[in-house]
Specification:
The structure is a homodimer of 336-residue chains. Chain A is an alpha+beta fold and 336 residues long. The first copy, chain A, has a single domain, classed as HIT family, subunit A, CATH 3.30.428. Helix content of chain A is 26%, strand content 24%. Chain A contains 7 helices and 15 strands. In chain A, the strands form 3 sheets. In chain A, strands 3-4-7-9-8-13-14-12-11-10 form a 10-stranded antiparallel beta sheet, sandwiched between helices. In chain A, β10 and β11 form a beta hairpin. In chain A, α1 crosses α4. The mean pLDDT of chain A is 94. The interface between A and B is large, with 71 and 72 residues. β6 of chain A pairs antiparallel with β1 of chain B, so a sheet runs across the interface.
């Protein structure tokens, strides 16, 4: 049998196959390694000039860094230029103003995020905060998305060296708008944060709870779009990742390492995407700026890309998930 | 440079890389061939009983058919049962009522749709119409989606024998709602069909026009989500595929064979999805039933799955397309 479940945040539906018991597996494939990786320490001259780096007094664009942020060498959006809207017949177009950065997460040529030492993950998480904070100063930018693609099936590019991608956009993405609107509607009705309520319910029910730390809760979402999808929520209500404190960064570094580690173990190194779902840049001219601090609650999604989406997903915007989140949570819990 | 283009129908955005000139290629991979295919003529006893077939007087569930429709052997939704909505804490769930059928498009073990004779494609297109018409009689079903997955990267399953999938849903999909709402808004403002206007504009501008036949127009959409995405629109305004006439079926069979054939030639057998975008089941209790006949215009989308979607697409609902539709149209035109 199957259940058609509604994602309460985005108001979309997922068909969950509740009968299947076989754990789907697909190993993450990496791009072929080329001669020398431009993201490794000592190769700094092969990348564009760094935007930000964690360094111990060493000079920019040379060795001696711990985390390094550089512009994407083939940026899909550029920071230069004015934001111009143009009509093309019945169509609308905006010039490609934005930012496209790469966060290189270690000077060593490692491929898996879960192989980084805790301390290194903390530096990465602090870098995320710094970059969001900095880019939000540019009022043309409506949204900053930080994400990871591990394995070619998750859309990883030609560089295997562990890194995150950052894209800052001149428009609020449709999926973010769906989430904001779901959260606002719920708050309007209940006067409580949807994500806080959802977190307390999952802790109480327990069947989709994977684990909790002092500061975070890790669950398999009720309407998971992908098998073994994971949602990480901070226990403290915070509308933006910018508000994360040092204790939470410390805790989150351990949580991330643990959850990606057990996913790696259970699914045998699956391709996956990690997405930092932050609130948009809070600009007074946007419709949500007054209520967002109470309605929204930042979170991280991790989505193994074991199944390929089909014409069904493209045609409907709905998803089919062949492995129930309750079973996924059980399997992941048993590997803690 | 890139352009951020708005999809006027769905109100979503696509970032188009307008600089890249290299044509992306990925060959469609098939599942390993197993001993004997259950979809081939003579193997009827290995499938569930047929729902519909085009036969010349031969008995059901034996050989002697031209097109055969069977239930999916592992249906994700089933026609039996009552449509029950249940609450699970803050969540909503609907029982998995619907239909999940397979349209086997030829008795021979062919793998590519464009290898079917014209006459066979006509029978397939008539079968699509019959199945939609029949399933719309069930008032629990809100939407019938027919689609094709070619190649494992497009989500093709383990059977390579050329077929289409059909899923009938108890809810109108979010992507269909977006299209209906974009079309209705445009009609409300202009008192003209959005798709008719878009088609006339593309014929006039010409740079995204691939070709036109007597009854259909084939274009590379302005905000294509995927490189070499193709949109096929009937010239006659029809809200539903159910209204297609015999002349249009004849014309469409040639158009489909031609466009998939040149796509195969230019991109060297790419994985792709084909989606028949029809209107929902017209039920008086739905909000759109009164206006849909004037607003909506059925169409077919074909999407090569050469690039894998990344965390960007999953996190935003926006797409990045590395090959401009104007260039794609030019390349496809040059192979006509």
């Amino acid at each position: 049998m199957s259940e058609v479940r509604r994602d309460i945040v985005t108001d979309t539906w997922v068909i969950i196959d509740t009968e299947n018991d076989s754990i789907p597996k697909t190993k993450a494939q990496q791009a072929p390694e080329k001669d020398g990786c431009a993201f490794c320490e000592g190769q700094e001259s092969r990348t564009p000039n760094e935007i930000y780096a964690i360094r111990d007094g060493t000079a920019a664009n040379g060795p001696g860094w711990k985390v390094r942020v550089i512009p994407n060498i083939k940026p899909i959006l550029r920071i230069e230029g004015t934001l111009a809207k143009t009509g093309v017949g019945v169509y609308d177009m905006v010039s490609g103003v934005g930012a496209n950065e790469v966060i290189v997460e270690t000077p060593q040529h490692l491929i898996r995020f879960s192989e980084l030492p805790d301390e290194q993950i903390r530096l990465v998480l602090n870098t995320y905060r710094m970059r969001i904070d900095d880019l939000h100063k540019d009022k043309r930018l409506r949204y900053v998305l930080i994400y990871k693609n591990h394995g070619t099936l998750a859309g990883a590019s030609t560089v295997n060296h562990v890194h995150s991608d950052l894209i800052a956009l001149p428009a609020t993405p449709v999926r973010v708008k769906q989430k904001l609107s779901g959260a606002r509607e719920y708050y309007g009705y209940k006067e409580r944060c949807l994500f806080c309520d959802l977190m307390f319910q999952e802790i109480e029910m327990g069947d989709r709870l994977i684990f909790q730390s002092d500061k975070f809760v890790v669950i398999a979402p009720y309407a998971s779009r992908f098998p073994f999808e994971v949602l990480i929520l901070p226990k403290r209500h915070m509308y933006s990742y910018k508000l994360i404190d040092e204790d939470e960064v410390f805790d989150l570094s351990q949580v991330l390492k643990k959850v990606i580690g057990i996913m790696h173990e259970v699914l045998e190194d699956p391709p996956y995407n990690l997405i930092l779902n932050d609130s948009p840049n809070l600009l007074p001219k946007t419709s949500y700026w007054k209520t967002i601090k109470q309605d929204f609650h930042w979170h991280i999604e991790i989505m193994p890309r074991i199944y390929r989406t089909t014409g069904f997903e493209l045609g409907t915007g709905f998803y089919i998930n062949h492995y129930a989140p309750e079973k996924a949570a059980g399997v992941l819990r048993s590997h803690l």
